[in-house]
Specification:
By secondary structure, this protein is an alpha+beta fold. The protein is built from eleven helices and twelve strands. The strands form three sheets. It has a five-stranded antiparallel β-sheet with strand order 2-1-5-4-3, sandwiched between helices. Strands 7-9-10-12-11 form a five-stranded mixed β-sheet. A hairpin with a 3-residue loop joins strand 11 and strand 12. The two termini are 47 Å apart.
């Protein structure tokens, strides 16, 4: 950053100096041309006056005096009567010269062009005499260009001085500008008193810090919950196994103890499987390709698998709606609907009901699960999708849930860009909508 700012400043100054030199050269050149034009016009007027007094012989007399100025006397037909610098083209007809034609029409004329004989850029000024002849005075304007060029060394010295000064100034200014940035307290970004332009960045960093803290706390809480959830069934399995090993179990009670060990092991396996599923969903490690899934047919299959649980709790299950296809990952969609419906059975009242509707709506494809269960308090409805969060912890122990089911539903919805809507009242039941 430091180097880029310095380079930018020096580049700006260099371009400024080049533009300044170009403008200065143009101004000097134009002013020199104006001075030469004025001098030639004055000289032509003097010569005209002298010719009027002394005649054409004056021109011959002045030959030795004029060094840089060329004087030509031309008659009305364009023939050269006199030229102070005679050469091979001196006595060519000059009637077609621009300055001559203009002088014949208006009394005077001028032109700047390259001379065929001298190979220099010349300024020509012609004036008509009283007898009809044309007096033309010309002088090289290359001196104007040379005058402009002479400015170059001076401008070069100024440029070098300015660039050195700019380099020193850039280093000092950049160091001054960057110093507050280097001293930023990124742990408390909003407490920094720094440039206003950095406020959006600091707010973004503050937001990221909060998110990192939240994730870190969530990981700690998750680790603690996982440890607790794993320890509970393992402790039970270890305890029952130790009693059986020591021969403290009656033969008739062996089946009961074995069943308890089996149930705790099954709970442990389910918990580990749910943790693995969540880990894969968190990492986006989903290798299964999407396919067209009939949500209605999928829901009917899930409710059939849950029929034994519903029958055990005397919960009436009904599936209604219409066939709806959705492009998604069948396995994840299955787990989402299964977990919602399983919770609706687990936390339902004995003899209650579970209604599932599948179909198209103006909002999109929907799966609506309605139960007559214990309900969820309004202040806890947003937290039910947190890992291991349970509304009724005592009831959860009876039902044997892992506390990860709705977290899997939340992550599955994120993968499928679906929305989850919860409407629940304590003691009256819950309606949960999956909107695709």
């Amino acid at each position: 950053m430091r180097k880029k700012i310095q380079q930018s400043m020096i580049l700006v100054i260099t371009i400024t100096l080049l533009i300044t030199y170009a403008i200065t050269t143009l101004v000097v050149y134009r002013q020199t041309i104006d001075i030469i034009e004025e001098e030639i016009c004055q000289e032509a007027d003097y010569i005209c006056t002298a010719i009027g007094i002394s005649g054409e012989e004056y021109l011959v007399t002045m030959d030795a005096v004029r060094k840089n100025t060329r004087v030509t006397l031309i008659d009305e037909q364009g023939n050269v009567k006199y030229d102070s610098k005679e050469d091979e083209v001196t006595f060519q007809n000059h009637r077609n010269r621009p300055e001559i034609q203009e002088a014949l029409k208006t009394g005077s004329g001028q032109d700047i062009r390259e001379s065929d004989t001298l190979n220099q850029e010349m300024f020509y000024y012609a004036v008509r005499l009283e007898n009809g002849d044309i007096l033309r005075v010309s002088k090289s304007v290359d001196t104007a260009f040379r005058t402009a060029i002479r400015v170059l060394p001076v401008m070069g010295i100024i440029a070098v001085i300015m660039l050195i000064f700019a380099w020193i100034l850039a280093r000092w200014q950049v160091a001054r500008l960057i110093r507050p940035i280097n001293k930023l307290d990124l742990d408390h970004p909003l407490e920094n008193d720094v440039y206003e332009e950095l406020t959006p960045l600091l707010k973004s960093i503050d937001k990221q810090n909060k998110e990192k803290d939240a994730v870190a706390n969530m990981r700690k809480e998750f680790s603690a919950n996982v440890s607790h959830e794993l320890k509970t069934p393992l402790t039970s399995i270890s305890g029952y196994a130790e009693i059986m090993k020591d021969g403290l179990v009656k033969p008739e009670d062996m089946k009961l103890f074995s069943e308890r060990i089996y149930n705790e092991a099954s709970r442990l396996i389910t918990l580990v499987e749910d943790i693995i599923k969540l880990s894969k969903l968190d990492e986006g490690n989903i290798d299964i390709e999407k396919e067209e899934v009939d949500l209605y047919q999928l829901t009917r299959e899930i409710c059939s698998r849950l029929a034994p649980q519903a029958s055990a709790r005397k919960v009436h299950v009904e599936v209604t709606g219409e066939p709806v296809t959705y492009l998604g990952i069948r396995q994840i969609l299955d787990e989402m609907v299964y977990n919602i419906c399983e919770n609706a059975i687990k936390y339902n009242k004995e003899g209650g009901s579970l209604n599932v509707w599948v179909g198209n709506t103006l909002q999109g494809k929907k799966i609506i699960v309605t139960d007559t269960g214990i309900g969820i308090p309004e202040d806890q409805q947003e937290r039910i999708f947190e890992r291991f969060y349970r509304v009724d912890k005592s009831h959860s122990k009876e039902t044997g849930g892992t506390g990860l089911g709705l977290s899997i539903v939340k992550h599955g919805a994120m993968i499928h860009n679906a929305k989850i809507k919860v409407d629940s009242k304590v003691g009256k039941g819950t309606k949960m909508e999956l909107i695709f």
